[in-house]
UniProtKB/TrEMBL annotation:
Native source species: Mucilaginibacter lappiensis
Enzyme class: hydrolase
EC number: 3.1.1.53
PANTHER family in the cross-refs: SIALATE O-ACETYLESTERASE
Name listed for the protein in its UniProt record: Sialate O-acetylesterase
InterPro entries referenced in this protein's UniProt entry, alphabetically: Galactose-bd-like_sf, SASA, SGNH_hydro_sf, SIAE
One function term, GO molecular function aspect: sialate O-acetylesterase activity
C-alpha cells in the first residue's frame, strides 16, 4: 500500500510540474525516424502533434518550414521539393521551446515505395531462393526498409503499432520482403537514387481487409460484410490472440505426452482407421476437421537393412509435422519451413523385421497429408528401395481440440485502419502489391474489389493516379490432365482486367511458380519483373516490360487466329518446343487441347475435334503447362476469348 501511495505521489508531482512549467513535447508518428528515406520531387509532408495553438518550426538540412497546431494539437507542414541526396538531419520543435526539439538523423532523399499484400509479398529474403548467397552480398546502405508490425484495429489509427527504419545490410536484410528487396535493389542500381520501402504486409489476408470502411460502404459487393463487423471490439481481438497462443502451443508441442507413447512400436492402434497413402487429409472423408492428426505405418524391412543407416523420404508433407521412427523423433518442421524431404535414420534405430513409422501432423486450413506421387515416399539403404505407399493408419482427436481462431485480420478494413491509414500521406513514389490467393473463391468479385482498393488508396494519398504495380498469381497446385475450370485462372483474369485502371502495371509469373508450394522461392525474378514495369511506366525508359498480351481474334474455317500486343522482338516458345497451353471449343463450350503455331505476331489455334470453333483459352488452369513468350523471355499473360460464366461468378 505504501508503494502505491509513493507511485501516486510521484505521478501527481510530475503532472503538476509539466502543467506549471509549460513543458510540452512534439510527437511524430512512427513512420518518421532515423535513417528514413523521403520522397524526392514532391512537397514533402511531415505531421504530428504538439501544444494546441503553438507554432511548429522545422528544418530539413538547411531548408525550413513552419505550421500552426490546431485546437487538438495536430499539425502538418510541407518542405519544398528536394532532389535525391543526403544524408540530412530533420529538426522539429515548438517555437521558443528548444527543450521540445526532436532531431532525426541520417535521412536520405530518393524514391519511396509502399510494398503491401499477403504472404508472397511478406516472404522474407531468408526464406527465398539462394538465401545465404543473397544475404552475404546485401550491402546497400542507401536502401532502407520500414517494416510495419502486424496489428488489427476496428477504427482508423493515426499511428501504427511498431517498426523502425533499417539500413539494408547482411543482418537486417534477412527479414525484409524478398520481392520488395529485389525490386528495390534493381531500381537503386539503375536509377542511382536511394530507395525506401515501407513494408505493410500480412499473410493469408484478402483484399477487403486492406480497403477502408468508407470505400467498402459505397459498394453492394462489400457493404453487408463491412456492417456485419460493427459489434466487434478490441476485446474480441485480445481473446483471439490468446486462443492463437494456445493454438500454436498445441501445434508445436504434443499434448498429454503423446509423443512418448503414440510413436512406439508397441502402441495399440487397433482402433485406428486405415487409409491408402499418399493423399491429402482433406480427401480422407473426415469433413472440415482442423487439428492434430497422427499417422502410423508398420513396415517389414529386409534383413539386408538391419544395422544400416537408412534414408527415409516422405515427399513433401503438408503443413507442420514431426516424424518418428520406432518411437524416436527424426525431425520436426515449423510452419512448412523445412524443405527437406529425406531424413537419415541412424543404424541403431533400425530393427530386423518390423519397424514403425509415425507422423504427427497439423491439419490446418484444408492442408495436411502426404503429397503424391507414390514414388516420393520410401525408405532406402542406398541400394534397395522399399515403398511406403499403401495402407497407413490414422486417428484424429488423439490430442485436445485446437481452439477456434476467428482470424480478425481477415475482417474488412481492419488492416487498413491499423497498417495503412497511419502511413497516409507519407510521400511515396508508388505501390507494389502481391495478393490475391486469399480471394480465389471470389475471383469474379475481385474484378471490383481490387480496383476499389487502388482507387481508395489513391484518393487518400491525394497524389492523382499514383503508380500501382502488382504481381499476377503464379502457377500452383497439380496439373490438370484435361482442360478444366479454375478459380486461380479467373482470379488472374480479374487481375489482368485491373490493367484498365490508369497507371497500373502487372508482372506475370505464370512460368516461375511451384506446383507444391503457394510460396514459390524465385522472388528475384518477381522483383525484376516489377522493376521492369517501373522502369517503363514510372521512370520513362523504353524497355519491354510485359510478355505478350491478348488483343483480339478472328475465326477462319477451323482455325482461330489470335493477335497480341507486347510481342517485343517477336513471339517464341520458352523451350523451343511446340506451343503448349491452348485449348479450343465450339458452341457446346467443351474445350479440347489444341494445336497451335506461331505465324509472325499471331498464333493459329485449331483441333481436329472442333470443326466450328468459337473460343480459345490459354494457360487457363491452376498450374497450366504453357510456354508462349516474347523473344525477351517474358511469358504471355493467360487469357480467354470467351465470356462464358465462370465457377466463381455467383
Amino acid at each position: 500500500m505504501k508503494i502505491i501511495k509513493r507511485i501516486l505521489l510521484v505521478f501527481f508531482t510530475l503532472f503538476h510540474f509539466f502543467q506549471t512549467s509549460g513543458y510540452t513535447q512534439v510527437i511524430l508518428p512512427k513512420v518518421f525516424g532515423d535513417n528514413m528515406v523521403l520522397q524526392r520531387g514532391i512537397k514533402i509532408p511531415v505531421w504530428g502533434s504538439a501544444t494546441p495553438g503553438s507554432l511548429i518550426v522545422a528544418t530539413l538540412g538547411k531548408v525550413g518550414a513552419k505550421a500552426k497546431t490546431d485546437k487538438d494539437g495536430k499539425w502538418m507542414l510541407h518542405f519544398s521539393k528536394f532532389k535525391a541526396g543526403g544524408p540530412y538531419d530533420l529538426k522539429i520543435s515548438e517555437s521558443g521551446k528548444p527543450e521540445s526539439t526532436i532531431k532525426l538523423k541520417g535521412l536520405l532523399i530518393g524514391d519511396v515505395w509502399l510494398a503491401s499484400g499477403q504472404s508472397n509479398m511478406e516472404w522474407q529474403v531468408q526464406q527465398a531462393r539462394d538465401a545465404p548467397n543473397e544475404i552475404a552480398k546485401a550491402d546497400f546502405p542507401q536502401i532502407r526498409f520500414l517494416l510495419v508490425e502486424h496489428d488489427i484495429k476496428f477504427t482508423p489509427q493515426s499511428d501504427f503499432l511498431g517498426g523502425k527504419w533499417k539500413l539494408c545490410d547482411t543482418n537486417n536484410v534477412k527479414q525484409f520482403s524478398a520481392v520488395a528487396y529485389y525490386f528495390a535493389r534493381k531500381i537503386h542500381k539503375e536509377q542511382n537514387v536511394p530507395i525506401g520501402i515501407i513494408q505493410s504486409t500480412w499473410g493469408g489476408t484478402p483484399v477487403q481487409t486492406w480497403t477502408s470502411r468508407e470505400m467498402q460502404l459505397t459498394s453492394s459487393a462489400t457493404r453487408a460484410k463491412m456492417l456485419a463487423g460493427d459489434t466487434l471490439t478490441q476485446n474480441d481481438v485480445v481473446k483471439d490472440s490468446l486462443n492463437m497462443i494456445r493454438f500454436w502451443d498445441i501445434v508445436y508441442h504434443p499434448q498429454g505426452n503423446t509423443d512418448k507413447t503414440v510413436p512406439l512400436p508397441e502402441y495399440d492402434d487397433s482402433g485406428w482407421t486405415a487409409v491408402e497413402m499418399p493423399r491429402l487429409v482433406k480427401d480422407f472423408g473426415i469433413g472440415k476437421y482442423e487439428g492434430m492428426i497422427w499417422l502410423r505405418k508398420k513396415i517389414v524391412l529386409p534383413t539386408s537393412f538391419a544395422g544400416k543407416e537408412l534414408v527415409l523420404n516422405v515427399g513433401h508433407p503438408e503443413m507442420n509435422y514431426s516424424l518418428y521412427f520406432n518411437g524416436t523423433e527424426i525431425c520436426k518442421t515449423i510452419w512448412n519451413s523445412n524443405s527437406k524431404q529425406s531424413y537419415t535414420i541412424r543404424a541403431g534405430l533400425v530393427k530386423n523385421g518390423e519397424n514403425t513409422i509415425a507422423i504427427r501432423m497439423a491439419m490446418l486450413w484444408g492442408g495436411g497429408g502426404l503429397n503424391p506421387p507414390a514414388e516420393d515416399i520410401y525408405i532406402t539403404d542406398g541400394y534397395s528401395k522399399i515403398s511406403l505407399a499403401g495402407k497407413w493408419l490414422y486417428k484424429i482427436n488423439v490430442e485436445p481440440a485446437i481452439p477456434k481462431i476467428h482470424n480478425y485480420q481477415n475482417y474488412p478494413a481492419v488492416l487498413f485502419n491499423a497498417m495503412i491509414n497511419p502511413l497516409i500521406p507519407f510521400g511515396v513514389k508508388g505501390v507494389i502489391w502481391y495478393q490475391g490467393e486469399a480471394n480465389d473463391s471470389e475471383a469474379y468479385r475481385y474484378r471490383e474489389l481490387f480496383p476499389m482498393l487502388i482507387n481508395d488508396w489513391r484518393q487518400r494519398w491525394h497524389r492523382g493516379n499514383l503508380p500501382f504495380l502488382y504481381v499476377q498469381l503464379a502457377n500452383f497446385k497439380k496439373e490438370d490432365p484435361l482442360p478444366a475450370e479454375s478459380e486461380w485462372a479467373e482470379l488472374r483474369e480479374a487481375q489482368t482486367l485491373t490493367l484498365l485502371q490508369p497507371n497500373t502495371g502487372m508482372a506475370c509469373i505464370i512460368d516461375i511458380g511451384d506446383a507444391g508450394s503457394i510460396h514459390p522461392t524465385n522472388k528475384q525474378e518477381v522483383g525484376r519483373r516489377l522493376a521492369l514495369i517501373a522502369k517503363k511506366k514510372v521512370y520513362g525508359k523504353d524497355v519491354i516490360s510485359s510478355g505478350p498480351m491478348y488483343k483480339n481474334f478472328v475465326i477462319k474455317g477451323k482455325d482461330i487466329i489470335i493477335r497480341f500486343t507486347d510481342t517485343g522482338s517477336g513471339l517464341a516458345t520458352r523451350d523451343a518446343a511446340s506451343l503448349k497451353g491452348f485449348v479450343i471449343a465450339g458452341d457446346d463450350k467443351k474445350f479440347y487441347w489444341a494445336s497451335a503455331r506461331i505465324e509472325g505476331g499471331k498464333v493459329i489455334v485449331s483441333s481436329d475435334k472442333v470443326n466450328i470453333p468459337v473460343a480459345v483459352r490459354y494457360a487457363w488452369a491452376d498450374n497450366p503447362v504453357c510456354n508462349l513468350v516474347n523473344k525477351e523471355g517474358l511469358p504471355a499473360v493467360p487469357f480467354r476469348t470467351d465470356e462464358w460464366k465462370g465457377i466463381t461468378q455467383k
